[in-house]
Each structure stands twice: as structure tokens, then as C-alpha cells.
Amino acid sequence: MRPNLLNLFKANARRGQFRAEANSLFVYDVIVGSDADAEWFGGVSPEAFTRALRAMTGPVSVRINSPGGDVFAGRAMAQAMREYPGEVTAHVDGVAASAASLLAVTPARCVMAPGSMLMIHQAWTIGLGNAGDFRQTADLLAKIDLTIADDYAAKSGRPAQEFAALMAAETWFTPAQAIAMGLADEIAADLRAARPEAGVEARWDLSAYSHAPNTAFDPSLADADVARIAAQIVLQLDARQTPAPAPDPIAHRRRQLAARLLAPTA
């Protein structure tokens, strides 16, 4: 297993910033699990985000330029946005990748800057243990993926299975594609709205991902093209899940006998 999660944190440590300014929260950093993690890696924690949001009143803009990070931290931040009594608008100023995409799709309105991108993929983790431990971890990751696909489906009104397929392919959406898929609502009309002086030009190291910045889908793809590709991926995944043929009982018995003979030397 490639240590993608550690690579993402290590490559982007101390590159970004999180701050509250007027009625805007700038999530221009990696998302980490706690204040303690933020002290070690840098990044924005759910505690810091929630404290800043609760100190605000009235409409709030959550401005996002983040390569992602801890999925459960992203969940906690998304829940804080849901519980905020005022109106929240997400602005994707640069990139909203991985866990940061949850921040983009949670509010009722998501605005993407021209040239920005939103990325969805399957959850990652780092594990230690025996075969049983890794099976349990794989089962947990599958459950996490289902909950994330449900979030995208809730935002878009499209089937969760479609997003599960796009997550498996690690999909990078341009603003037009995100709007076509129902993950975003509009493209910012004024380039100055992206506030490049606030850090939108931060150069994230996205090498931990397989298709960054946009090799998975061409920017010219229309809604029908993206839906067609998603349907193809669903069919491919279904084919992979076809049950394997029943094992030959004689061959199985031979393997058992061979294992017994080899056991003393293992």
C-alpha cells in the first residue's frame, strides 16, 4: 500500500493557512484531525474551524483552497456548517480535493472560481496488523465511501452509485463539470472574487493523487459525457464483483495436504 495519506500531509505541511476575516472563513490548508495535529503538521483542525464559525453571525462564506486531509475532520467541519443558524455559502477558490470536497457540497450553495477544481475519490487510511485487521479496515473504508457518496448524491439529486463509481476513478471536476453533476451551483463571475492575495495561488503538492490536476476528464466534457463515463465505470465495477466459480474440491484437498506437509518448515 502506498502511504498516500502521509505523503499528502508531509508534502503540504506548513504550506497553507486558515483564518477568519469579517464573515469569511479561509480554509486554505490541509484538513487535520485535531488541534494537536495542527500543531505538528500545520493545517486546519475541526476545533479551530468550529470555534471561528460559532463566533460569527449572519451570512458566512467558507472559502476553500485545500488538497484535502482527514475525512472525519472534514465531516465535523461540515456538521458545524449545517448547524450554523445563518446562511453558509461555499466558495471553491482553488481546489477542493478529497475531504475538502465535503465542505464544498454541504452548504445549499457552492460557487466555483474559474479554473478551480473539485476532486472526489475513495477514502484512504494507514494500517497495521494481521489479515483480519486489514479486512476490517477494508470494510470500514467501504462504509466510509458509501457515506461520502451519499453526501454527493444528497447535494446533486443523482444516484449515490454514480458517485461511488466516480470516486473509484478519482475524478477531478472543472466548474462546468461540477455544475453539470449537481455538485456546484455557479461559476464566480468576477475573477477577483477568488481573492488570489489571500493564498489561492498556493502551490499544493498533489502527487499523492493518481490523476491530479485533471487527467481523468477533459474540461470540454459535457454533462452527458460525464454521465456516460460514470455509467461505464459502474459496469466495470459490477463486472469485477461477479462471483468466482466454485473451487474444485479435489484441488482444494490437494492444497490442504500440501499445506500440512509444508507447515513444519514455515
UniProtKB/TrEMBL annotation:
Q: Which GO terms describe its biological process?
A: protein quality control for misfolded or incompletely synthesized proteins
What superkingdom heads the lineage? Bacteria
Could you tell me the keywords of this UniProt record? Hydrolase, Protease, Serine protease
Q: Name one GO molecular function term.
A: serine-type endopeptidase activity
Which Gene3D superfamilies does the record cross-reference, listed alphabetically?
Answer: 2-enoyl-CoA Hydratase, Chain A, domain 1 (3.90.226.10)
Q: Does the keyword Hydrolase apply?
A: yes
What does UniProt give as GO cellular component? endopeptidase Clp complex
**InterPro entries in the cross-refs:** ClpP/crotonase-like_dom_sf, ClpP/TepA
The answer to whether UniProt assigns keyword Transmembrane helix to this entry is no
The record ties this protein, via PANTHER family, to:
ATP-DEPENDENT CLP PROTEASE PROTEOLYTIC SUBUNIT
Q: What name goes with this protein?
A: ATP-dependent Clp protease proteolytic subunit
Q: Which species is the source of this protein?
A: Phenylobacterium glaciei
